[in-house]
Amino acid sequence: MRRSAAQSLAGLVAAALALSPACAKAEAQLTVQYDHPLHAVSPTLYGLMTEEINHSYDGGLYAQLIRDRVFFRREHHQYVKIWSVDQNAVNGISISIDNRNGPSRALPYSLRLTAARASPEDPGGIDNPGYWGVPVWPDTTYRASIYLKSGARNPGPVTLAIVSDSGKVMASATFAAAGPQWKKYTAALRTGRVRESQDDFVRITVGHPGSVLMNVVSLFPPTYRNQPNGFRIDLMRKLAALRPKYLRFPGGNFLEGKTLADWYDWKLTIGPIVDRPTHPSPWGYESSDGLGLLEFLEWCQDLHMQPVLAVYAGYALDGMHIRPGPQLEPYVKDALEEIQYITGAATTKWGAVRARDGHPAPFALHYVEIGNEDFFDRSGSYSGSHGRFAQFARAVRKAYPRIKIIATMPVRGDVQPDLVDDHFYRTAGQFLRETHYFDHLSRKGPRIMVGEWATQQGTPTPDFGAALSDAAWMTGLERNSDLVVMASYAPLLVNVNPLASQWGTNLIGYDALHSYGSPSYYAQVMFSDYLGNQAIASHLSEAGPLCFESVTRDAATHTLYVKIVNASPQPQPLALRIEGGAVAHDGTLVTLHAGSTHATNSINDPDRVVPHTETVKWLGSDVRHTFAPYSINVIEMHVH
Ligand code: AHR
Fold this sequence. Notes:
By secondary structure, the chain is an alpha+beta fold. The chain contains ten helices and 35 strands.
């Protein structure tokens, strides 16, 4: 968790204009050598980084709608109240936690709901607010489930309803009366011709006197590809549009945990939900782990991304670490077992567990990262021939020689990584100055994964000034993608309710009903859509200091991509000369533009800054075009 000193884009613009008031007005020249590829563009360049922060999963991508469905009630390492009692003088409802009766070893307790005088006319029970509201759509089927066991006197069937803030039932379903043993009950709820809303909550009631024990209350709306225990459709579509090539998971700080006891213990995130005990996210709330290891892998499968698995490496955010050597060995074994769960045949011990969990086919895994941001470990226990990194890397390489190993910092000693993960959280001004950062770095050492990067400007999502510097930074990533083989913006997701987020600037925002992409999101969609597979020799001259370029091609389809970012408040005229091929007149121009660096998208104004795509007929080997002030542009050309 680090932030840089603020230096605004406005400051840099002012400085640039003061230095050379006419610089953005002079015509720039961009000469492109179409037949001179410099290097391949990394096929894995753009990916996703994700963790349980900002209610990214619970209250976000993981579509389940009940908050604290296991009645654990631990947030910020304290116990808080999510559920409330729906009672009146007549029904006499009371609740308590029964610590001796639970549906599983992972959940050895339950909620006991007692109704002294409930009747069908006066039912009562408990209410759940969802994640800042329960979303209601018209004519929609929801799937509910619950574990129940009757008390000494059975209060009969249990009803689960979605109720509006005015008390109107929007949809409801009834589970059969609980038996004397724990059992999972399921039901479907369907809304009618209701209005879309998110001012709703869930109410669970009984209509007769008695007591019933309950746990693991789940409610799913329709999910992406209709998967049970699945993902939110709108968010998955937005992620798919980024065409990500990899998913780095499960963190981030979420991998490490606040203390050594809070580490991401993957074995507690697999199997039936009733066997997942939940655990505290370092971001101040309890993670349901409904989106667990297998769901991460299925997410990769759905979006055709390759997993970049970060394994826990014995460091906690409070600065404590597990000593390398025998004490660390159980964690190394655990990482090897995790890799076997992912890649092993169904005949292996952990491959068989994955098959039991519903996925007999192994997943491909080419990258394993050892830890996260271990440069924060001031003890120095990560680096060196006998450090934590070396202990993990030796074991993983021995068992899985083809897997590429990623270190979270440069390491000393004889065991070297294939890649180093470097993180860049910057101000707009810093990124605009650092677009050439990688140009002169040595190509002799490990390759680089920029596992987290972002311009920190705009809350809860980046504004257009941030999008400009993000785009400028990406031109540097593309030009240097022989060295920088992976890059992922972070954080990716934010629930925009003020109490839901912990980080200032995040790529995609949402509430219970809606979601939107920030200007930076759209810049990344553009860069990913028009990536090409080879970087091409080009030379930009006479441009203002806030003009940035990347030129790539797809040799097989004879397509050339020229990206121009004009982060200046003045238009940028440009003479474009393409050598080494004949350029067709017809092509495509995509522009993301705003009148001010403060322009932004929001939950109530999601489409203020979106790309505009047009077919153009003025292209050729020698053309002139003026790029608008504050604009991100991609020209797609056909060259023969
Ligand atoms: O992206 C937010 C946090 O920033 C990550 O969890 C951590 O790796 C970094 O410090």
